[in-house]
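re: ur question from yesterday

yeah so i grabbed the chain u mentioned. its 445 aa long if i counted rite. heres the sequnce exactly as i have it in my notes:
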Amino acid sequence: MSPASRDEQRTFLSVLSWPERTAVAKALRTETVGGLALLAAAVVALVWANSPWSAGYAAARDLHFGIPALGLDLSVGHWTSDGLLTLFFLVAGIELKRELVVGQLRSPAAAALPVVAAVCGMAVPAALYLATAAAGGGSSKGWAVPMATDIAFALAVLAVLNTHLPSALRAFLLTLAVVDDLGAILVIALFFTSDLNPPALIGAAAGLVVFYLLQRFRVRGWWWYLPLGVAIWALTYNGGIHATVAGVAMGLILRTTRDKETPGRKAERASPGERTEHLLRPLSAGVAVPLFALFAAGVSVSVSGLGEIFTRPEPLGVVLGLVIGKIAGILTGTYLTARFTRARLNPDLAWADVLAISTLAGIGFTVSLLIGELAFPDPADAAHIKTAVLAGSLMAAALAAVLLKRRDRIYRHLWEAENVDENADDIPDIYQRGTTGGTESQDGP
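ran it thru and got these structure tokens back, copy pasting raw so excuse formatting
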């Protein structure tokens, strides 16, 4: 390996390889549209819940339907959080699997920096919440609320700002969100379980084994996977573990590498994970998450209620965790990892850009609302936490907007350089100079 190649490996936030950039762009394009729908749904929820028709909002959210004999007689609010969000976590599981197999997390050396940054970005907000709650004599139950990053909401902010963020910064934000999603699902599985039902959990585990075997033996056809997936989800829910865990488990089982042509087997144009993600990501981003936001973000907002965000320890801990804890955790984790691995920052960027992304990661809308509901079953307490999540996310978004717009001229210059295509072959010229990983196939080794 040449010195230039070794130097490229040590560069943090360098230009992505063409396959990685293509995969990231495809994922973020859908998430951006979904983020705008998420914002619209949150606004509708807030307006509806604070209008003269607020009783109708509560009635719609609490309306029950389902199959009682199967333990699935749930309210609309629970169907969106336990059912529709399973699609969100299924897509997150596929994205995590892709990152681990063919993406930025494939190499331990390359994965170290974003993973450490993400872990610090979860640990510091949780610690800040606990310190705030302890100092004010509050409950420690909400420590996990400010841990998450909402990639859709963050991308919606970028879309509204119309900023030309370089692909490497967008990929870093996506990686932070993917690791955050894994952390969130582990927290939900380990700390928010209730009345475990061993027979149901054994059934869910058996279903996952069958799911794995179908993948292992290259069985295709949605008629195999759809009923099996629904059964795994229902058994997980009745087993006492939050049903979204089933989504992540199935996402991690799906293959994300394509079979190459061998005797008796044709080459795959897309892996099962790619096909499933292609089908479900628009449904997750455009339907599941906005509907969850519609029935989770509708809290009654008043002047006194807003004041309690900064006087009660629990909501104050959430706000401080999202706005300050995320910045401190991600920035510190990134700097220390870069320092001790001798990685160097892309010379075209500055630590101010890492600061901006760290601030943007403080938007913790969807998963934070979900964990808030799980941590505080009492509706009054949950309302304060939800208000804090909304306030903290908006504050983080506003601060990130200021930081990003200050650097937008530089971002625009880098974005234009990345997208020069003088020979009009739909591949930017920068990827044909032999310095950014080339245009190799995404099939993996």
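noticed a couple things. Residues 1-9, 435-445 have pLDDT under 50 and may be disordered. also The chain is about 70% helix and 5% strand.
anyway ttyl
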